[in-house]
Specification:
- With 203 residues, the chain is mainly α.
- Helix 2 runs parallel beside helix 4.
- The longest helix has 32 residues.
- It is globular, with a radius of gyration of 20 Å.
Length: 203
């Protein structure tokens, strides 16, 4: 009985973290999905997602509505929800970076302002990521860090930004690659935080 209660309490904390990461709905169907989620109507939430397959907010709620301590597939459900909330974070980051870049491109310093815009999404999680940020204009130092961490998107985004110069014939391609890579970094941070919380709750 005590163990069941403990599981319920920790699961509730995980669910609350999911909802915190999702944030407030931004359109009508997200509002509807959240309303049906709060009612516990799994069929209605999943119907909304099935009608808006590009919407990861609704997709996440579609999994969370079935995430109960008595569900034998709880871990799989939470893992799927973690992917959905991370995908939603990536899409939001892409939208916000895109808007910031559009403003930057119309400014007197498009490269500097676009770089500043993208850097807002490159939050360090490790010591080597902080080191990369501190060395962000040093291409050689970044390449050395990349050798040790070849899959790190923060480092990859910074490497793109070192090539962003006003006279580059591929400037906008470089900015776009840096931006999409920064959004992937945002996704990874979100997914790791949620996954850690799930492991702490269920292990």
């Amino acid at each position: 009985m005590v163990q069941t209660l403990s599981t319920q309490l920790t699961l509730e904390a995980v669910i609350n973290l999911f909802l915190e990461k999702l944030g407030e709905p931004t359109d009508e169907w997200q509002h509807q999905a959240l309303e049906q989620y709060k009612k516990g109507d799994a069929k209605a939430v999943k119907k909304i997602y099935a009608s808006h397959l590009r919407d990861f907010y609704s997709k996440c709620l579609g999994f969370l509505v079935s995430a109960t301590s008595t569900n034998p597939n709880l871990r799989k459900i939470l893992a799927a929800a973690a992917n959905a909330v991370a995908d939603y974070a990536q899409v939001k980051a892409l939208d916000e970076i895109s808007s910031g870049n559009a403003i930057a491109f119309d400014s007197p310093d498009p490269v500097g302002n676009a770089t500043t815009n993208i850097l807002k999404f490159l939050k360090p999680k490790t010591d080597y990521q902080q080191l990369a940020l501190d060395s962000r204009t040093n291409y050689d130092a970044l390449k050395e860090l990349e050798k040790e961490n070849p899959e790190d998107h923060l480092i990859k985004a910074l490497l793109y930004l070192t090539k962003a110069t006003p006279d580059s014939p591929v400037l906008y391609t470089i900015i776009a690659e840096a931006a999409t890579t920064a959004a992937l970094h945002t996704r990874n941070l979100q997914h790791q935080e949620i996954s850690d919380a799930i492991d702490a709750a269920l292990n």
